[in-house]
Every structure is written in structure tokens, then in C-alpha cells.
Amino acid sequence: MAREMTPQEERAWLHFLSGDPMFKNFVANQRMAGENPYQRIASQPICPKCERPGFHHNTGMVCPTCGYNGPVVMKTRKYLREGWWK
Fold first, then answer.
1. What is the DSSP letter of 55?
2. What is the DSSP letter of 62?
3. Mean pLDDT of the 21-29 span
4. Helices 7-17 and 21-32 sit at what angle, rounded to 10 degrees?
5. pLDDT (tens digit, 9 = 90+) per residue, 26-62?
6. Angle at the Cα of 40 (from 37 to 41), degrees rounded to 5?
7. What is the pLDDT of residue 1?
8. Do residues 12 and 46 lie in contact, with contact meaning Cβ atoms separated by under 8 Å?
9. Which residues in 17-42 are b (16+ Cβ under 10 Å) and which e?
10. Which of 50, 82, 83, 86 is the most buried (most CB within 10 A)?
11. Which residues on neighbouring strands pair with residue 53, listed in sequence order?
12. What's 82's DSSP letter?
């Protein structure tokens, strides 16, 4: 069953989607491919430096927003479920 986002969840998603245009383009391409972009974002690693989703890379992850390149600390799904963004 679907539910509305809380104000905190809405702020978290706006934070995720603000900043780097590369990630906005990634989300737009997921929509065009018929995938649920929120599911796709949830499977991406979260940057420990700027707290935005990044991309998987051979060294772990890379963040297009702040340039972090290192190990995956946590996935976006876990970050949201455990309330790290509050």
C-alpha cells in the first residue's frame, strides 16, 4: 500500500536530487526506461561525505557531487530505513 512521504523524507529526497546534474540525468533515464527511479536510487551507495547517492565503481563507489571515491559504507535504502537523514 502506498503512503505519502513525511516532511523529513521529502527533504531527504530533495537533498538527494539537488546538486549534481549527472545524478538528475541518471534518474530521468530510469524513468524513460520504465523503471521506478526511487527503487533504483535506493540501491545506490550513499556518500559518507555529502550524504547523497553515488554510483558503484570498481574501488567501491564514486560520488559525482563531492568527488568522494572510496568504499561503500551504506546503501541509500538502509540510510533511509534507519533514519540517518533525520
1. E
2. E
3. 77
4. 110
5. 777 877 777 777 777 788 899 999 888 888 998 899 9
6. 85
7. 46
8. no
9. eeebeebeebeeebeeeeeebeebbb
10. 50
11. 46
12. T
